[in-house]
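The protein record quoted for completeness.
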Amino acid sequence: MQLLLPEEPDELAALKQEFFDNGRCSVQPILPEEDAERLANWLETTDGWARIRGLRKQRFDIPPGTDLAGDPQLAEDHRQIDRAIAGDASKSFAFLYDGIPMTPEALAAMPDNPLCELRSAMTDMRVYQWLQDLSEEPKLSAVEIQATRFTLGDFLSTHHDGPNEDRKIAAVLGLSRDWSVDWGGNLLFLCGEDGLQGLVPGFNRLDLFAVPQFHCVSPVAPSAPRPRHAISGWFLA
């Protein structure tokens, strides 16, 4: 697996200009079609998702395979957590989604899945060098990424990915086929006091944006016929 990074001078110059003008740009396709399809199919069928939930500075994750139905009190505790997150999301940083960590330690337990190949592709030295040229960041040397799945009502409230001096470029590799803006899950950017710009989830598209930058993911709507899948995270200095 290898990222298809534009290297023609004119194309790269246009992306650099877009990145400096808007703080973000997109590359599509970013993977060979066969690899993108294989990765998307794996995400759509795996049962290895953890439930990722947070409110303010607290996390309330549910590991994959947890049977809440077998413990009524635990199930009720988690329902109360969900209600608290939904009720406070407009006031505090909050999030609801499913995730699979893509750290070397986590992937060592599942060496034959395509997430391992993707992490290897994203940490190739040529990728860091390309991103340094795009952004003029002097030093990029690591990634912090995870697979994400947003289902009905899942969201990520407004934040700017800081304070974290290591995070330089945020990245979202979309793996959502034929997504409609009406289904939610849109990546939205705050511009000035009242402005808003956004990106509809894409397939085999890498969205890059400078950190810090205020953004959110809008809730997935009841009309969405399937989850929103992506690989999300940061390139680090």
Remarks:
- DSSP finds six helices and twelve strands in the chain.
- The chain has a mean pLDDT of 91.
- The two ends are 24 Å apart (CA to CA).
- Helices lie at 9-22, 33-45, 72-88, 104-107, 114-122, 125-135.
